[in-house]
Amino acid sequence: MMEFALDNIDLRILRLMQENARISNVDMAKQLEMAPSAVLERVKKLEQKQVIQHYTTSINPAAVGQRLLAFVFIRTSEAFDRGEMGAALAKIEEVQEVHIIAGEDCWLVKVRTADSAELMALMRNKFAKIPTIQSTKTTIVLETIKEQQKVVIPIIKK
Amino acid sequence: MMEFALDNIDLRILRLMQENARISNVDMAKQLEMAPSAVLERVKKLEQKQVIQHYTTSINPAAVGQRLLAFVFIRTSEAFDRGEMGAALAKIEEVQEVHIIAGEDCWLVKVRTADSAELMALMRNKFAKIPTIQSTKTTIVLETIKEQQKVVIPIIKK
DNA sequence: TATAAAACAGAATTTAATTCTGTTAAAACT
DNA sequence: AGTTTTAACAGAATTAAATTCTGTTTTATA
Question: B39 and B15, same structural domain?
Answer without folding.
Answer: yes
